[in-house]
Amino acid sequence: MRAGMTGQAADPDFTMTGTINPDGTIGPVGGIPQKYKAAIAAGKKRLGYPLGQGRAEDLELQREIELASLASADISIVEITDIESAYEQLTGKALPRASPVPAERMKVPDKVHASLAG
Questions:
Q1: pLDDT beneath 50, residues of the chain
Q2: Which helix (H) or strand (E) holds 58?
Q3: Using CA atoms, how far apart are residues 8 and 54, in angstroms rounded to an integer?
Q4: Is 3 exposed, middle or buried (0-12, 13-18, 19+ CB in 10 A)?
Q5: Pick from 98, 99, 76, 80: which is nearest to 88 by CA?
Q6: How far is the C-alpha of 114 from the C-alpha of 117, rounded, in Å?
Q7: Tell me: the pLDDT tens digits for 84-101?
Q8: What is the pTM of this model?
Q9: What distance in Å separates the CA atoms of residue 43 and residue 37, rounded to the nearest whole number?
Q10: Largest pairwise CA distance in the chain
């Protein structure tokens, strides 16, 4: 979605799965082996998975597998930590990372605070 918002072309060989957490990290999902097998059948060459989910339940085999076992000479599998790394994998471009705002800049001005209190 961000690739479209920034006008960057998306790599048609890349796909990934995961949830987007409020802090921008990529969260866990189920069914990754089946999603990967479908993506490979559809011609995808680079596949991303959420941080820490390098092992996942294969519903067909009814056991946990290493996602790396689905890689081959033509297929690469990468761990995606956050929305910025997903964007970079998808577009080949770095997305500027947000920097924390100092607490003093977040303070509600006294004038605004007074008008809200009254």
A1: 1
A2: strand 55-58
A3: 28
A4: middle
A5: 80
A6: 5
A7: 999 999 999 988 777 778
A8: 0.75
A9: 10
A10: 68
